[in-house]
Amino acid sequence: MIASRVLALAVLLAAMSSAHAADCPRPGTLGTARVLSVDAASTPRVGLKSFPDTLPLADKEVVLTFDDGPAQTTPQVLAALANECVQATFFMVGTGVTALPTLVRRVAAAGHSIGTHTWSHKNLKHLPPEQAAEEIDRGIAAVETALRGKPSHVPTTPFFRFPYFDSTPALLELLQSRGIVVFGADFWASDWNKMTPQEQLTLITARLEANRKGIILFHDPRAQTAAMLPDFLRYLRDNHYRVVHVVAKPPAANVTH
Length: 257
What we know:
Number of helices: 8
CATH superfamily: Glycoside hydrolase/deacetylase
Radius of gyration: 18 Å
Number of domains: 1
Shape: globular
CATH topology: TIM Barrel
Distance between the termini: 37 Å
Structural class: alpha/beta
Oligomer: single chain
CATH class: Alpha Beta
CATH architecture: Alpha-Beta Barrel
Number of strands: 10
């Protein structure tokens, strides 16, 4: 079992895209170190807080993710990321997307990945299967409407995160069958708890030092997170961490003979 997982990881590392992101026009910024392409065939679900496996990251590589937006504080988060030339992944809730479609397009225009986080952030584990599937589909359709002008249940970026990280085997199988990668997290900022930006910075940097790498969960609607983020990105830069931007692997081109 262990040998097969090691082999699978080696194949993934050999096949994945690891191209460096475009150079930042401003010297001395953190920047995005590389781009990692994933799909549900090779990485159906990632994040050690929920699953046995995570993304193939090297020591001191991190993936920045933000849940529950868009919100009034999202522009502040975008400004902090842009100031350091960093790309992240936003898992958006459909109701907020419908209320703020221009902001969704702004996130996409800045080069960030946009995944989905259901329509209304209900705990899918406690819903009947058909209602859970509808929550997923309505969330996807909201993002597609904001980005493409018409609803679709096929996401442009097939990334999904369960509210509260509560999944079921049936829903995990459904998402994998639809080619959608399920993201958990390797550690988080616990920013659903009230704290000052400095307290949050102290907490997340301590967890980062303990884990050394991984998928980090933040929430862009939290004012304390938006206020803390510039200092956190500066901490990453000063301590030689590298940001990895996760994108969807393009579908294989059809080959005719």
